[in-house]
Design a protein that fits this description.
heterodimer, A: 297 residues, mainly alpha, MetI-like fold, 2 domains, 11 helices, flat, B: 515 residues, alpha+beta, D-Maltodextrin-Binding Protein, domain 2, Dipeptide-binding Protein, domain 3, 3 domains, six-stranded mixed β-sheet, four-stranded mixed β-sheet, 15 helices, 24 strands, 28% helix
Amino acid sequence: MKNWPWAILAPALLFVLIGLFAPLIMTHDPGAQDYGALLTGPSGAHWLGTDYLGRDMFSRIVGGARTSLVAMAFVLLAALAIGVVIGSFAGYVGGKTELVMISVIDIVLALPSLIIALALMGVFSGDNFTWMSDYWKMIVALTMAWWANYARMSRAVVVAELQQPYIEAARVMGASHLWIFTRHILPHVLGLVVVYASADAGALVLAIATLSFLGLGVAPPTPEWGQMLVDGMSYIEEYPSLVVIPGLALTAVVVSFNLLGEAFALQKVPRAVRGRFLTRKKVARAAEESARKEVEA
Amino acid sequence: MFKLDRRSFLAGTAGFSFLSTLPSIVLADAHGDTLRVAIAGETGDLDLLQNVSTLSSYSAVFDALIHYGPGGTLEPGLATAWKVADDGLSISFDLREGVTFSDGTPFDATAAEWNLKRWMGVADFSWIGIADAYDSIVIDTPNKITVKLKRQVPAALLELTIVRPVRFLSPKAAAGQPIGTGPWIVESHSSTETVLTRNDAYWGEKPAFARMELKVVPDELARANALRAGELDVIGGDWVAPLSPRRAKALEGEGMTIVAEPGTATTILGFSPKSPMMQDKAVRDAIFLGIDRAAVAAVLFEGYADPTVDIFPATVPTAGSRTPVPARDVAAAQAALTAGGWAGDAAGWTKDGMALEIAFLVSEESFPGSRRIAEMIQGMLTEVGVKANIETVDNATMHDRRPKFDYDLTFFATYGAPYDPHGSLGASFVTASDTGPDGKIYIHPDLDVLVATALETGGDAREGAMQAVYDWLRDNTAACPLVVVQRIWAVNPRVTGFSLPVTDYDLPFKGITLG
């Protein structure tokens, strides 16, 4: 862990911490409007200034982190659970059932996730779904658009593991399907999909912001970064900070989560560290080589 | 072999810089006699009978019998004089003599009759009173016609000033050919621009420049930047290429001329007449009193809007007496709720076990900028204790839910000149009218009777009949007018003599000279 590039991963961790403790960090009510302090710059009273309704930008950024974190967590957990159950079942059962299920997964994967989410949001805006808030509509839509990748990965892991001799041995010893699946296969499945999910978190934060940017996500007055971006667009010429601040927050979190995912994928060693590791290895080899030559000489 | 040293690099850079300025110099010269106006969407072929082309360019190419003048005055167009019979059942028009369409076809009683019969008495145009009441046309002389009606239509003359279908097309025009008698002739149109050339045979005051290029620029910021760069001369107009107050402020600080005048359309917060919550007048009163209209005008419209509680602004005819705009009064709003049987305070209200929570339907596509207004109002209502849940939907959903009154609160706007007041009253406040996806602002059986009376009353009694409608709407808090957004245009320094076109459906060119 000491080799981790904390400077790169800090935004993701900061995002999680800010999201968790947002109510304690916010200096103002993020929805409180103050027409006497419209579009002010950073000050002691408003650390990041105020927006067009006099709302505190710092508190809205912090509140936006919480909104994104909670939505992201719900979607990731739900998509992961659905994907693992469907994919594992398909892989374990095999045969025609697997063929049908994998076809459905492939069809879902063939369509861009955001397009599916947008289409579902359109469906949810109909009369039959008025009982759901926009926030939950977004979470359900994103979950339904996001599960297929996890299903495909889970199925691939299950199929691979089923070929292993120790599974055969467990069967011979009379282990039940449930035992084999939960004790031997599921840990492998979770190991992979959790790694993937860590990288996917950034994409999800971006998707949440995109839906809000398009006016289909979180409803006001809940602060949300995508919504802050689109609201700030009208003021981009005179007050670019209204766009730049949520834009930077979004960029930092997305990049950071991507790096985090990469770190997990590379056996918990991020590329930057791996690069340094390789350099050190080359230096050591060169030293060995020169020592060998000296001995030979 | 060529060697790049510092001197040749600098010389080359300077040379390229000079060459890069040449096209703009040539272009600027080429635009010397051309006014370049932004339009938000392509004009199309300006078919007068189809609801396809954008409304911004018709009046430049086609004339009507009567033109809409400042404040709703009626000005001679292709008719030099008109007379409504005492019984209101016929209107005779003296047609302007010596007028020809731009293809050379003379405009006379025969051409007028051919045009009028294309829409009068046709079911598709029954939303126009005079078309619905049409009986027959009589050609009195080669330059005089009389339109006979089945019933009185007091707003008939105003209806003849609207954008389409009332304007006149050459009877010899082939399908898709926009040939009128107006000051401009369509030279070409495409998805990116429409080019108009001056009609030198125009019967009225001819434009001072020979060409007008209508450039399609859908994005507002791109339009503003094109104006700054000198690629456009004029931007603005609600139905031409809307310019937001925020952008206008920015342009004003950069040397562009901003011309703004009081608007003709009112932004209204509509209460659903079918929502159980909004059927409670106490709730409507609380919302009406809990909104700071002056703050909405100042904060979100940068002062380019006038707060109002009247349905129509004074800029449209027979708009009724003016009601002073009350200051926001949270205590009065809460008192209204208490009087209406609600119990609670700023933390929330309940009545018969039901919490005061309303669905605020908003669509940025249908009504740009509405979400920010909704957020502001949401904040104001929260202080009263009314919880407004903003539901942001797309255009299709808005078009689906609004006609069904499937909301508690949503935004509406009156049509503005030249359609009001009869247009909005007859469509948005009448149970039986067909407004399609636009929905209606408020309906009630009592209101139907009052509106019908107002629309059928002519002469001196009309003012009073209209006022009765406005009084009913106010007494029942049937709608919540917010602001009248001003008409804003921005002009670059090359343009002199700019004045706002009479309505936001018209292109600006009258009185303009180009530097």
